[in-house]
Automatic annotation (TrEMBL):
Pfam families: UCH (PF00443). It comes from Geodia barretti. Its EC number is 3.4.19.12. This is ubiquitinyl hydrolase 1. GO terms for molecular function: cysteine-type deubiquitinase activity. It comes from the Eukaryota. Residues 34-240 form the USP domain. It is an enzyme of class 3 (hydrolase). One of its GO terms (biological process) is protein deubiquitination.
Length: 240
């Protein structure tokens, strides 16, 4: 029990460092500084989307064309993936929803303290519903893996843009593609074979002794190795 308490305290200390607890931080407002509200286990979606829309290629593809797309699209955009991506880009990049709080007089009967009105991020509920439509996991409110959602989102972008004959769809997907070479050697004959494939995530074998979930892992895994899927954003241009 003592060892578990020490480990828990260490994790809490690390989390406090990451969150910069106890430090006086200055909030940032304006274009590009809009967050996303957690809709209930939607942190996997929020983190992936914010990374994607920080890339110039995604800004050019969706934000730069948002006014044109939204003006010429259908009245109801619930099922239009391109329109939802454009709306999301406007919400995250434009700065319309990232303004400094304004002080207003307190309500009658209250004390002299001032009230602050500010919007803490946008809600991507419609986008979440559309991107998860027809998918067993992403249509639910359960926790999901960010790398799996990234692959699902990239596949949706590629499929949608191909249907619309968008010429720059492949360039967006290729930002995350790289080549992996596997070396396979026969222990008896010593012969070696090399296999090359394209991938968008880097899978690394992690020893169970080095895993952060070591205590839980021993109850769930009989083998001595567990596979951790690491989602690496690789900026590779003109690789394929």
């Amino acid at each position: 029990m003592t060892e578990l308490e020490i480990e828990a305290n260490m994790k809490l200390s690390d989390w406090s460092i990451i969150q910069e607890a106890g430090q006086q931080l200055t909030p940032c407002y304006g274009p590009g500084y809009t967050g996303l509200v957690n809709l209930g286990n939607s942190c996997y979606l929020n983190s992936v989307v914010q990374v994607l829309f920080s890339l110039d290629e995604f800004k050019q593809r969706y934000y730069a064309r948002a006014e044109e797309v939204l003006a010429g699209g259908p009245p109801v955009a619930n099922n239009d993936f391109t329109m939802q991506m454009c709306k999301l880009s406007v919400g995250l990049i434009s700065g319309r929803h990232s303004k400094p709080p304004t002080d207003e007089p307190a309500n009658e009967g209250a004390d002299n303290n001032k009230q602050t009105n500010t919007q803490k991020g946008i809600r991507a509920a419609m986008f979440k519903m559309l991107i998860g439509k027809g998918h067993v996991e992403f249509s639910s409110n359960r926790q999901q893996d960010a790398s799996e959602f990234l692959l699902h989102l990239l596949a949706t972008i590629q499929r949608t843009d191909r249907a619309l004959a968008e010429s720059d769809s492949l360039s967006l997907v290729s930002l995350f593609q790289f080549q992996v070479e596997e070396r396979i050697q026969c222990m008896e004959s010593g012969q070696v074979r090399y296999v090359t494939r394209e991938d968008s995530v880097w899978r690394l074998p992690v020893s169970i002794d080095d895993a952060t979930n070591k205590c839980r892992g021993k109850h769930h895994y009989d083998n001595t190795m567990c596979w951790a899927i690491t989602f690496v954003v690789v900026f590779v241009y003109n690789l394929v």
